[in-house]
Amino acid sequence: MDTLSVEHLLGIKYLNENDINLIFKTADHFKEVINRPIKKVPSLRDITIANLFFENSTRTKLSFELAEKRLSADVINFSAGQSSVKKGETLIDTVNNILAMKVDIVVMRHGNVGAGVFLSNHVNAKIINAGDGTHEHPTQALLDSYSIREKLGSVKGKKIVIIGDILHSRVALSNIFALQLQGAQVKVCGPTTLIPKYITSLGVEVETNLKKALEWCDVANVLRVQNERMDIKYFPSTREYTQLFGINKEILDNLGKKIVIMHPGPINRGVEITSDVADSDQSIILNQVENGVAVRMAVIYLLAQQIKR
Amino acid sequence: MDTLSVEHLLGIKYLNENDINLIFKTADHFKEVINRPIKKVPSLRDITIANLFFENSTRTKLSFELAEKRLSADVINFSAGQSSVKKGETLIDTVNNILAMKVDIVVMRHGNVGAGVFLSNHVNAKIINAGDGTHEHPTQALLDSYSIREKLGSVKGKKIVIIGDILHSRVALSNIFALQLQGAQVKVCGPTTLIPKYITSLGVEVETNLKKALEWCDVANVLRVQNERMDIKYFPSTREYTQLFGINKEILDNLGKKIVIMHPGPINRGVEITSDVADSDQSIILNQVENGVAVRMAVIYLLAQQIKR
Amino acid sequence: MDTLSVEHLLGIKYLNENDINLIFKTADHFKEVINRPIKKVPSLRDITIANLFFENSTRTKLSFELAEKRLSADVINFSAGQSSVKKGETLIDTVNNILAMKVDIVVMRHGNVGAGVFLSNHVNAKIINAGDGTHEHPTQALLDSYSIREKLGSVKGKKIVIIGDILHSRVALSNIFALQLQGAQVKVCGPTTLIPKYITSLGVEVETNLKKALEWCDVANVLRVQNERMDIKYFPSTREYTQLFGINKEILDNLGKKIVIMHPGPINRGVEITSDVADSDQSIILNQVENGVAVRMAVIYLLAQQIKR
Fold it and tell me: Is the Cβ pair B265, C98 closer than 8 Å?
């Protein structure tokens, strides 16, 4: 049987193209499963998964939980608020304690860049990175590519622009890696203060003019405006951001072609995107959410196949 | 097969008498189920239910969760504290995101009047209102009526007085609708500042004298004193409330008949009701809690029958 | 079939030696189960267990939850933060409400000494004490003894020193009762301000010199330094504590024999114990965690056998 080239899912940068194809092929199967009346398979009845979320998250945590339950895995939830982290325990000790209770896979969101990689070197379990600081968010990038492939037939050769706060976005970085691996062209668009200087070294062009960026692309992946970042250091106000980088129906209708609109959520309606755009037939935002469960089932399933039983 | 006249359970005011009879007949069956050694039925193995609680709740949330698990549904819990609500996402977006993960039924508690109705107009899922602001709390009213029917044989023709803070109580309003629909007579009793003026327009008499109210009734449904409301605006002090509207054993024993005592909980012992009353054989308070699981199983089961599979 | 002499697990002091032997024999079986590929048994499909944690806990709560799930029980979680406790409800009312929903076993952690005993006198359910104030933590003591038995063949005749803050430790007290019941010798070692005067009346010797304590013992059970207790009242500073009572590799290597190192967690690495000690082959810290699940499965299973079905 086909298997992933990696032992953990720590970031897209550790994957090759075959891995992505295998994940997508497996996700195709699970997408069919979750659209059946009984949306479950008994595949992982012998696997225990711990969800360790050291940062808050709604959709990612819920999506992973559902993916795990639909695979019939045993699920344990652990959030930092209830934890021994406050008592001064190290991350490795916290996780080793959980693993001593016979946990096979750890899904972890953590505020520190590289937390997943660090953990994978020190504990005996499969690690899935559900977001590490401003670094990577690999399952989000996989579900984004999967949704483009579903909508446009393939990712190869497509032109994708990522719009917004690239500097602080793990979604942007993981998407760039995933899209390039599959042969897409990627540009980023946003305020220069929110675009990191190293981005061009990744082979990504910067386009600060929204209109030009949209005219160029097949797909616009619109990032959420993080209000807490809207200050003098990065950008004067949300209102000014909307004027320069907000997408509305008029802008889209004037393009003379129908581009695909994506958003990782949660949406600030009227800020980075208007309601008529978010709810239009060009938007695949809710498909992204639906595909997230199937893609996460695939990742978990494939890593679980490597566990000796 | 019999079916409800409604597509959601948004409030008692949308139900007819047949609906209530159907819910009670179904609850009779489930009450028998939850008193078996194995308290589960496999009925809803193909249904996923999300519990969305934007306000805290112990007994209602627990009761719904148990009802869902005993029907073998897949259950997802979501509370506002962990959520994207804080990031400025709209209620509809939050719920649509959850639904995109293939959720069939949403049980929602929300601080705003009409939140369930609003939601039912915008999303594609069955909505069960688990309390919306000061408006309705339909499953509480159903379990209250079910408990009266169990204790007294029927609700029809019975005299029920609801005692306490009617103004801010969703329990009171839903109870009034449910009791009248089944042919009971309803009075309310409490401080005039805590009784809304519109109440008489619902065909409900106001009785400000506790003794007279109790002499009249077959059943007294005693509401919890919400300490945070005991200020000069509504009522000077808890102590004064207890003197005028608190129920103790002496008052009950002087009635010359045995009335039934109900309370939706949590009880403030010694405030609206003394311990010897709460724990007496006239009290059906814990029966209400037990029946809550059976009635919620019935509501969920009946709505799930309308979902195409 | 063998049965426990008690109806609840409220503290080690209510058990006899047969009870402990029965729990350990049962835990042996479950330890084998949780090391199988499918780590579950269907034994308690007809049992509902409520975890009531009025104090935070990571490992104990997780360990109980896993134990319950691996026995196929229905599990309900209730933590004080979400609860009616804040609304002024009494503990008995809170628990009776939960029990009215057909709960068979309550696992409770509570800040008050004797909360479990109190509860067991007033409600109709099996109670398992998961820690009551500074009093007892019986399942921790059972898993500690079980781990010693596993490592050294038996507990009888062994010399165990418990090191640290004995005064505030429910782990210490439950361990003393359990070890003595099985015929071990127990000493305590720590700052005199953190050793209660009554300890000698339990037949426990006090040794304030760490080196002498370690030379005497077969097993050192090292308690966590509770930083919040390190003040002038009990001990001047963490640093001074480490100098006098901290265990490092050098101290161990100079003993001329290999003692067993235990710790209930979470560890403050570099404070009460250095990393090379915690991670050495003398340490059975993670075995304790693993055994915790098996021992808790045994306790729950044995109490459940007493429930009429």
Answer: no
